Fold VOC family protein.
Amino acid sequence: MSGNYKVPEETRIGHVHLKVSNIEKALEFYRDLLGFEVTERIGNSAVFLSAGGYHHHIGLNTWHSEGGSKATKSGVGLFHAAILYPTRKDLAFVVKRLFEKGYPLEGAADHGVSEAIYLDDPDGNGIELYWDKPREEWPEDENGGLKMFTHRLDIKSLLELV
């Protein structure tokens, strides 16, 4: 196989499957707080959740992790799973829900190409909630290449949408 192979442009990351310590606790976060719908459940050991009827965007299981301790910040593994919302207003709605429930946030940033909220799920898995800005607004360097950055997100203006 050639070293020049590039993954097709239409390729997408279809889902993330997480090990969790307790299915019910994880469902309180992903279903009840973030609003994903359960598409399938396998007893108390696994559940699959979706946005918009897809077979699953998020899989949760306790096959090797039931009752386990939280993920550590310094260990190897997943840094975060990112959930892309279609509009800024959709992101604002979920952020408002998080604030109303007193759910702790780890950070918030404007990356030029997107606006993002960072938090941990109940098992310490990093989660990014974000929306992409229109492509024509993405910042470029002097050669026309993408130039992302990390600036403070104006959460007040975000929440004014809802």
